[in-house]
């Protein structure tokens, strides 16, 4: 069997590099969030993913304290209600303040909003890049058709499309489009929010290779050339998720995992529908304009 080496970083369209394994932080809040981020960085994670809608950026900033900022790849996202030009600028400035950093490595449009022209949003994103507030920009939850629209109007490289992607939701067409256009596909919920850990095929493959179901799912994504950002709230799982680089899933097993794809038929595999809490961030941003 030929071992398939996974590069720890992928080069993006703009020349910057993104670590292929990161820590997702959706639903991580408070002291637990700060602790998990600190533990992850101590375990040599170098990619932290957050968003203004997660309401945990201050805790992430505290977790990053005492670590060299230049060694961390930090992603945040602007919420769909804040895609007007001025709102994007103010939302990014607020994220930087909460994260206690002078720049982001990647800033994403969290969700598309048909009421706001993409040209207007990307104009603001370009200004953020020009002013050093973020090194790279991209999108999240964009379909192929939306990516085409964005590519037509963006004056700066679209480096990433972050979407839900896992063996039950193997979005092969989207992955191929991203590869063709040099857009890195980042998989959030790469473990299917835990449902994949109980799948019989995944469990059988994991047992045979002496790995865990979570490691099989993450390695599957990495061998597809995808960046994976699993969430974890314990040191045990942080360590487990990080141990995915020095072994290989054979091609036959990769093909078996591919066949698990349920597409839109699996309700839990659809794109997560984030909803702002009652204490809306929209009000927070407006107070600062």
Number of helices: 11
* Neighbour order of strands in the largest sheet: 3-4-5-6-7-8-9-10
The helix content, as a percent range, equals 25-40%
Structural class: alpha/beta
What gross morphology would you assign?
globular
CATH class: Alpha Beta
Give the tally of structural domains: 1
Unreliable parts: 267-275, 277-289
What's the CATH topology name? Answer: TIM Barrel
- What is the overall pLDDT average? 91
Fraction in beta strands = 15-25%
Q: For this structure, what is the CATH homologous superfamily? A: NADP-dependent oxidoreductase domain
Main sheet record: 8 strands, parallel
Task: Please tell me about this protein's structure.
Strand 1 and strand 2 (17-19) form a beta hairpin. The protein is globular and about 55 Å long. It has helices spanning 30-42, 57-64, 85-99, 118-130, 144-153, 172-180, 200-208, 213-223, 235-242, 251-258, 281-288, and strands at residues 9-11, 17-19, 23-24, 47-49, 73-78, 104-109, 134-140, 158-164, 184-188, 227-228. Mean pLDDT is 91; it is low at 267-275 and 277-289. The chain has 11 helices and 10 strands. It has one domain: TIM Barrel. The longest helix has 15 residues, at 85-99. An 8-stranded parallel beta sheet has the order 3-4-5-6-7-8-9-10. Strands 1-2 form a two-stranded antiparallel ribbon. The chain is of the alpha/beta class and 289 residues long.
């Amino acid at each position: 069997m030929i071992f398939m080496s996974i590069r720890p970083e992928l080069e993006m369209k703009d020349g910057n590099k993104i670590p292929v394994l990161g820590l997702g932080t959706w639903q991580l809040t408070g002291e637990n969030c700060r602790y998990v981020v600190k533990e992850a960085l101590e375990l040599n994670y170098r990619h932290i993913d957050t968003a203004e809608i997660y309401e945990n950026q201050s805790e992430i900033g505290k977790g990053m304290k005492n670590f060299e900022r230049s060694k961390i790849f930090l992603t945040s996202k602007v919420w769909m209600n804040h895609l007007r030009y001025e709102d994007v600028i103010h939302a990014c400035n607020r994220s930087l303040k909460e994260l206690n950093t002078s720049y982001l490595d990647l800033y994403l449009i969290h969700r598309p909003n048909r009421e706001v022209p993409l040209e207007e949003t990307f104009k603001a994103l370009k200004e953020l890049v020009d002013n050093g507030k973020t090194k790279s920009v991209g999108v999240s939850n964009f379909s192929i058709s939306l990516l085409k629209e964005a590519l037509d109007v963006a004056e700066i490289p679209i480096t990433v499309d972050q979407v839900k992607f896992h063996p039950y939701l193997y979005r092969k067409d989207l992955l191929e489009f991203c590869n063709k256009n040099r857009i890195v596909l980042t998989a959030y919920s790469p473990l299917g929010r835990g449902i994949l850990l109980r799948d019989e095929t995944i469990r059988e493959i994991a047992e045979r290779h002496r790995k865990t179901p979570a490691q099989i799912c993450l390695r599957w994504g990495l061998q597809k050339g995808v960046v994976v950002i699993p969430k974890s709230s314990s040191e045990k799982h942080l360590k487990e998720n990080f141990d995915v680089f020095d072994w290989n899933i054979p091609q036959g097993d990769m093909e078996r995992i591919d066949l698990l794809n349920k597409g839109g038929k699996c309700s839990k595999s659809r794109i997560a529908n984030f909803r702002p809490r009652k204490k809306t961030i929209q009000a927070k941003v407006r107070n600062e304009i």
